[in-house]
């Protein structure tokens, strides 16, 4: 299961949390369109509303009105082909001996089966095959023996993989980021309370101020009365493993992740793409929407270098068509590209064009778009991609297709160029990505472009030092 999701948690002084949670989920809708949910706590009991569908369809006025309390968490979940599954919709909530627990998870654990079987032996019954329920049960068990902070630390020492979590224990909202900070999570100040969210765009939507990113391995505990928060650095790792693909494709360009505005990073990647593999054509065209910032950076760099090139819109996007990845078959995916994008003939006809997109996964989009450009009268079609070739699957939370489906898994760039029928094709280097993020290869998760993962994935090669925790039934040291 590859969960690519958005999470949020809010504690307010004396306002209901339901509506701000609802607005935040709207701001995070791009992170998941399969299901949406909110769990609140009113000081006495939990209230929950979780359903399949888009945020706007899942909640109506009555639903929001019954979500009482000034503390709550929310979740949007991304669809994976073939696994549209109501049991995995979140937040996951349970009541147990020492209180109620709600959990929203973005990421993917790689040692769930071990923990699940250990807990099952101890009598825990599971209702889904997801990671989140396993984290919830592990935490519930630790809470029987320890205080909240120690219980979270014990669970963090047992689970391995990527996770950004918002958790609600009774009316206390917590945020946790995995020790290598693979998925994003940040804290915002709302004036009369605090918010934890996958992306800062959710904080902006609430007119709040971004305080900072939650640090890798850090736990943030919001005060239930909305007056502040406490932080605990619970687990330290030697390096980080920030997902570079959040910056390339997944996150909103108006979000700040790990102290970088995604828009600036994409523009910088576009500039580097020109510096590394620029080609001078009559016009530079973005593939909307994610190609836009790349193409504007690329065109700027071209113009700075003295090229006589126009930056124009050559493709119109139908904003009512969802992401092509929800199409289960290749035939449907091809049709979806055509539904989604239509050329603006006058910007293309008789011209040499450079098409800029953020990534090639299966190759469906590029193949279709090159053909569309030719049908619209382009004389030459050059394709430039703002990421390195994607050669391996993602196990850390991005739905990226299996290895067999990835066009770059077993083809050279020249073979891909032939297949998509472009006049030329170039990708961005891995070093350019690390440079643009002011980081190093060792502090990024580059699994999908190197096949080397920062976590110990069964049946995958990795050249990094990976410490998979040993799971012991006795409490880990505090
Ligand atoms: P493909 O057509 O399979 O080569 O997919 C590439 C297109 O999908 C590009 O236009 C990307 O912007 C977009 N894309 C890249 N990664 C993903 C993803 N994980 N989920 C959905 N769309 C993606």
UniProtKB/TrEMBL annotation:
A single BP term in Gene Ontology: 'de novo' IMP biosynthetic process
Active site: 5 (nucleophile)
EC class: transferase
Pathway the protein takes part in: Purine metabolism; IMP biosynthesis via de novo pathway; N(1)-(5-phospho-D-ribosyl)glycinamide from 5-phospho-alpha-D-ribose 1-diphosphate: step 1/2
Catalytic activity: 5-phospho-beta-D-ribosylamine + L-glutamate + diphosphate = 5-phospho-alpha-D-ribose 1-diphosphate + L-glutamine + H2O
Function: Catalyzes the formation of phosphoribosylamine from phosphoribosylpyrophosphate (PRPP) and glutamine.
A molecular-function term among this protein's GO annotations: amidophosphoribosyltransferase activity
Pfam families recorded: GATase_7 (PF13537), Pribosyltran (PF00156)
Transmembrane helix in keyword set: no
Positions annotated to bind [4Fe-4S] cluster: 243, 394, 445, 448
Gene: purF
Protein name from the UniProt record: Amidophosphoribosyltransferase
Species classification: Archaea, Methanobacteriati, Methanobacteriota, Stenosarchaea group, Halobacteria
PROSITE patterns registered for this protein in UniProt: GATASE_TYPE_2 (PS51278)
InterPro entries named in the record: GATase_2_dom, Ntn_hydrolases_N, PRTase-like, PRTase_dom, PurF, PurF_N
Cofactor(s) required, per the database record: Mg(2+); [4Fe-4S] cluster
4Fe-4S as UniProt keyword: yes
Family named by the database record: In the C-terminal section; belongs to the purine/pyrimidine phosphoribosyltransferase family.
Cofactor binding note from Swiss-Prot or TrEMBL: Binds 1 Mg(2+) ion per subunit. Binds 1 [4Fe-4S] cluster per subunit.
Glutamine amidotransferase type-2 domain ranges (all copies): 5-225
Region (Disordered): 459-478
EC number: 2.4.2.14
């Amino acid at each position: 299961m590859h969960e690519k999701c958005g999470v949020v948690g809010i504690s307010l002084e004396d306002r209901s949390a339901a509506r701000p949670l609802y607005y935040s989920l709207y701001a995070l809708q791009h992170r998941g369109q399969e299901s949406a949910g909110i769990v609140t706590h009113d000081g006495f009991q939990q209230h929950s509303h979780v359903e399949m569908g888009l945020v706007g369809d899942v909640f109506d006025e009555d639903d929001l009105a019954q979500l009482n309390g000034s503390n709550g968490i929310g979740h949007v979940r991304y669809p994976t082909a073939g696994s549209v599954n109501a049991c995995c919709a979140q937040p996951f909530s349970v009541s147990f001996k020492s209180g109620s627990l709600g959990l929203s998870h973005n990421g993917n654990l790689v040692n769930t089966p071990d923990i699940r079987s250990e807990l099952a032996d101890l009598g825990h019954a599971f209702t889904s095959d997801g990671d989140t329920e396993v984290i919830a049960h592990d935490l519930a068990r630790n809470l029987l023996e320890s205080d909240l902070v120690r219980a979270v630390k014990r669970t963090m020492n047992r689970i391995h993989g990527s996770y950004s979590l918002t958790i609600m224990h009774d009316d206390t909202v917590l945020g946790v980021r995995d020790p290598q900070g693979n998925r994003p999570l940040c804290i915002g100040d709302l004036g009369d309370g605090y918010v934890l969210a996958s992306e800062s765009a959710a904080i902006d939507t609430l007119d709040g101020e971004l305080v900072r990113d939650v640090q890798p391995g850090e736990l943030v505990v919001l005060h239930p009365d909305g007056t502040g928060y406490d932080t605990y650095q619970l687990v330290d790792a030697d390096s980080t493993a920030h997902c570079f693909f959040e910056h390339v494709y997944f996150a909103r360009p108006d979000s700040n992740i790990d102290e970088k505005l995604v828009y600036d990073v994409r523009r910088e990647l576009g500039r580097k793409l020109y510096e590394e593999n620029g080609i001078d054509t009559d016009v530079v065209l973005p593939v909307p929407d994610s190609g836009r910032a790349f193409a504007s950076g690329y065109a700027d760099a071209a113009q700075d270098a003295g090229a006589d090139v126009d930056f124009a819109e050559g493709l119109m996007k139908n904003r009512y068509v969802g992401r092509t990845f929800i199409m289960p078959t290749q035939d449907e995916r091809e049709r979806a590209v055509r539904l989604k994008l239509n050329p603006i003939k006058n910007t293309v006809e008789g011209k040499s064009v450079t098409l800029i997109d953020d990534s090639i996964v299966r190759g469906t989009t590029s193949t279709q778009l090159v053909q569309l450009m030719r049908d619209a009268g382009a004389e030459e079609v050059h394709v430039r991609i703002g990421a390195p070739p994607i050669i391996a699957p993602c196990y850390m939370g991005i739905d990226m297709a299996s290895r067999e489906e990835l066009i770059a898994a077993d083809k050279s760039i020249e073979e891909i160029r032939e297949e998509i029928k472009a006049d030329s094709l170039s990708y961005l280097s891995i070093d350019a990505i690390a440079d643009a993020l002011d980081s190093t290869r060792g502090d990024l998760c580059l699994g999908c472009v190197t096949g080397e993962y920062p976590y110990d994935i069964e049946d995958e090669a990795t050249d990094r030092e990976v410490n998979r925790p040993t799971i012991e039934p006795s409490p880990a040291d505090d």
